[in-house]
Write a structure and sequence with these properties.
Number of strands: 10
Structural class: alpha+beta
Shape: globular
Largest sheet: 5 strands, mixed
Helix content: 25-40%
CATH topology of the domain at 109-254: Nucleotidyltransferase, domain 5
Order of helices and strands: EEEHHHEEEHHEHEEEHH
Strand content: 25-35%
Strand order of the largest sheet: 6-5-4-7-8
Bound molecules: zinc ion
């Protein structure tokens, strides 16, 4: 990114003169100031940073680590002595930054494509259990890296379905959108003849046929959970979908919003997606 003159009628990106510096209190750094040689307006290199305008930029890394370590937003605010609204804003900021990094990671795989993938969906909620959300996921079992996670609204099921319709009206399934997004992200990074493993979800064969027709799709029956309510870890010693189930287990343990019966309840689906992007980046860069 280049320095641009802040005057909207000028937009000069070339002719600048050094014009002193200023001390930025938030991270104790000296920032170079410039003066536009065409219109005289002053600017600085501070505008080039993604954190431009943030007063607590030094806490970004810490907020990211705590978010991926089962700490609630209110507790993060308490621990770091900042306002909970600051934490909320940081979740959005970190989510956007992480999303860019995750795309870069996927771009790096286009030259060295993935040969096997495990896909699955996990269920969570926004606001209430009457508004469930599905997270379509893809993992590379060889490296254990998460390739993509896509959250989408789905209608309530089981005995909650009737109550949900009475209280909130009909909730349309957005799963087509999340699966389309997932496969569009997978298409450029997956080898044509890749092996794709999944459970017996009815939508997967349709999407695999559409996006990766030459790949080999293996479907497995869902195994019994080791403990009731902990569906991620299976009773059987050899789980063919171990990689993705283990990743789900880790996500359920490390993301406060995904912990079962947790008090951390996201209010909007967009916030779930931000947290997921932050988690993908954190998980992939901290694998041993
Ligand atoms: Zn100018």
């Amino acid at each position: 990114m280049k320095i641009t003159c802040p005057r909207s009628s000028c937009q000069n990106q070339v002719y600048f003169q050094k014009d002193g510096h200023f001390f930025r209190k938030s991270d104790s750094k000296y920032i170079q100031r410039y003066r536009c040689r065409l219109c005289g307006k002053r600017t600085s290199t501070a505008q080039l940073s993604a954190c431009y305008g943030q007063k607590k930029r030094t806490l970004n890394k810490m907020v990211e680590s705590l978010l991926c370590s089962k700490v609630s937003q209110r507790r993060i605010a308490k621990i770091l002595n900042i306002d909970k609204k600051t934490v909320h804003r940081k979740v959005i900021f970190l989510g956007i930054i992480a999303s860019g990094k995750n795309q870069k990671f996927r771009d790096s795989l286009t030259s060295n494509k993935v040969h096997s993938i495990q896909i699955d969906d996990m269920i969570t909620k926004e606001r209430t259990k009457l508004k469930p959300v599905t997270i379509s996921s893809a993992v590379d079992p060889k490296t254990r890296k998460i390739l993509a996670l896509e959250a989408a609204a789905i209608p309530a099921f089981g005995h909650l379905s009737k109550i949900s319709i009475e209280k909130y009206g009909k909730r349309r399934s957005q799963q087509n959108k999340s699966l389309t997004n997932l496969f569009e992200k997978l298409l450029p990074i997956t080898s044509e003849t890749a092996i794709i493993r999944s459970d017996e979800h009815k939508y997967y064969p349709i999407y695999i046929k559409k996006y990766l027709p030459r790949s080999k799709h293996q479907q497995f029956k869902s195994l019994k959970a080791k403990t009731a309510g902990q569906g991620e870890l299976k009773k059987s010693a050899s789980d063919p979908l171990y990689s993705i189930n283990h990743t789900f287990g880790m996500m359920r343990d490390n993301l406060g919003t995904l912990v079962r019966q947790s008090w951390c309840v996201p209010q909007k689906i967009e916030m779930i997606q931000h947290r997921l992007e932050i988690y993908i980046n954190f998980h992939n860069s901290n694998l041993v």
